[in-house]
Design a protein that fits this description.
The protein is mainly α. Helices cover 60% and strands 3% of the residues. It has a single domain, classed as CRISPR-associated protein Cse2 (Peroxidase, domain 1, Orthogonal Bundle).
């Protein structure tokens, strides 16, 4: 993706906005969401960002590892399979929220946003490779 990052790990929702997003409030009704989408001018899929916002709101500690790498130590293969079987961004968002909670709210916001925006076979494959590749490192 070059030297110019698609997304950034520098953004953090206010506690009130994060709580609203976790409760399932429509992201377009949360004032901090507009600042969030301005961070991603290269992403034309604003609906995908609306799906990513509640997941990013769950994150309390930023990691530089991918979601697959983080999952290999703390998430069961069954839970990973549920994540990989997500049929659309909405389902994926719900699965990722659960996974981030299992990871004690530690994740990489950049990886989360890119996973939701570019969800498809390539992303599924990458998560699986990161997960199963990391199992040997335990």
């Amino acid at each position: 993706m070059g030297d110019d990052p698609l997304v950034t790990n520098e953004f953090q929702f206010t506690k009130a906005d994060a709580a609203a997003l976790r409760r399932g409030v429509d992201p377009w009704e949360v004032s901090g969401f507009y600042k969030f989408i301005k961070l991603y001018p290269k992403i034309d899929y604003k609906s995908a960002l609306a799906q990513a916002a509640p997941v990013v709101a769950e994150i309390r500690e930023v990691s530089d590892k991918s979601i697959g790498q983080l999952c290999c130590a703390q998430v069961s293969e069954r839970r990973l399979r549920r994540l990989l079987e997500s049929r659309n961004r909405e389902d994926l968002s719900h699965q990722l929220q659960s996974v981030v909670r299992l990871l004690k709210r530690k994740a990489n916001p950049t990886d989360i946003v890119e996973t939701i925006v570019y969800w498809g076979e390539d992303r599924r494959r990458q998560i699986a490779q990161d997960y199963f590749g990391g199992l040997g490192d335990e």
